[in-house]
Amino acid sequence: MRNLVTGASGFLGSHLVEGLLAAGEDVTALVRRSSDRSHLDRLGVDVVEADLLDRGALVKRVAGFDRVFHCAAMVKDWGTWSEFRAANVTSVQNLLEASAAAGVGLFVHVSSTDVYGHPDRVVDESAPLRRRGFLYGDTKIEAEELLWQFIDRHDLPTVVVRPASLYGPRSKTFVDDALKLLREGTPMIPANRSAGLTEVSNAVDAILLLASDKRSVGRAFNITDDSPVSWQTYFERLAEIAGLPRPRFVPIPRRAAYTAAWAIEAAYRGLRLTSSPPLTRLAVDILTTEQGFSSERLRSEFGYRPRIDFEEGMRRLREELRGRPSPDSPTR
Asked: Which residue range or ranges hold the NAD-dependent epimerase/dehydratase domain (predicted)?
């Protein structure tokens, strides 16, 4: 079976490429011209270039593939509406149209549990999608709405997956960015609710399981390890395995943190700063609300069980960190 993976140079996409290769599948990685493809080159996987905003070029790129896994997205807590919409909505529309025109057998769309709008309780796939004014979550909702409307009108078998907080080797958001804060000694908000942690290899297992079972078509699935581990515990363990001082948590009410984040964002917008603010409303929401979304549908109907628990996940992450050059090492 021929598989095309978009966003293959990114975090989830690169792990999905590895999972497909391990399963003996034929894999092609679709990347932008500017993407770092060094990891893909080491894997020896076929790589093609394409701009997901170029609809005409996409039709040629997806032709002949049995399955398309759409992992590419703008995953940040700051940016402009036009950037997020181009990356998370327009690209989905273009890829859907190209896949339908090419007769692709299955389209797997990677969404996010952010589409639920951080309801601060455990919810399953029946929960409504809720816009919160956060560009990432809102554009992910718009992409899903577009997708469901599209497959109602076209013969394109589609599965939607909604991973929770992904971590693991090569993670930028919850590893590299978190390590930067820890190294700088940045005070952190106490975060004792479930973080919804999902080790990236578990997410790959779930995606491949769903992609191989026709019962998944036309449906959405949460993917999470169902772990009770909190962000506070995660940051403490991340500091430990990286050999960094224990993080400093400053008790601050959620409302006060949210108000401060709103003020900081307003200042950044007013000054037209393009760098990410030190604190955003989305970050406050993620850290202070329940992120333990239910994956019962995946478990009960498909027999899914995460094979990597938190301790094993941190062990793997420690091994990867040990293989990296020191951040203080001189570069050439």
From this structure: 4-223
Asked whether 161 and 210 are in contact (CB, 8 A), the reply is: yes
Query: How many whole angstroms separate alpha carbon 103 and alpha carbon 100?
Result: 5
- The type of residue at 308 is I
CA distance from start to end of the chain: 43
Angstrom distance (rounded) from CA 306 to CA 271: 45
Question: Which tokens is 267 given?
Answer: 């200042």
Q: What is the DSSP letter of 303?
A: -
Amino acid identity, position 88: N
Report the half-sphere exposure of 182 (CA within 13 A, side-chain side): 22
**Element (DSSP H or E) covering residue 143:** helix 135-153
Q: Report which DSSP code applies to 173.
A: I
Name, in order, each residue with C-beta under 8 angstroms of 254's C-beta and a sequence gap of 6 or more.
Answer: 189, 284, 288
- In DSSP terms, which residues pair with 162 in a beta bridge? 222
* pLDDT, tens digit (0-9, with 9 covering 90-100), for 172-211: 999 999 999 999 999 898 888 899 999 999 999 999 999 9
pTM: 0.94
Q: What Cα–Cα distance (Å) separates residue 254 from each residue in 123, 138, 281?
A: 21, 22, 10
Positive or negative torsion for Cα 237, 254, 267, 73:
positive
Which position has the token pair 């093609």? 48
Distance of CA 254 to the CA centre of its chain: 25
> From edge to edge, which strands make up the β-sheet containing 67-70?
46-49, 26-31, 2-6, 67-70, 106-110, 158-163, 219-223
pLDDT tens digits, 218-268: 999 999 999 999 999 999 999 999 999 999 999 889 899 999 999 999 999
Tokens representing 89 are: 């909505």
What domains, with CATH codes, occur in the chain?
2-171+196-229+293-316 (3.40.50.720)
d(C-alpha 289, C-alpha 231), whole Å: 10
pLDDT 10s digits, 126-156 = 999 999 999 999 999 999 999 999 999 999 9
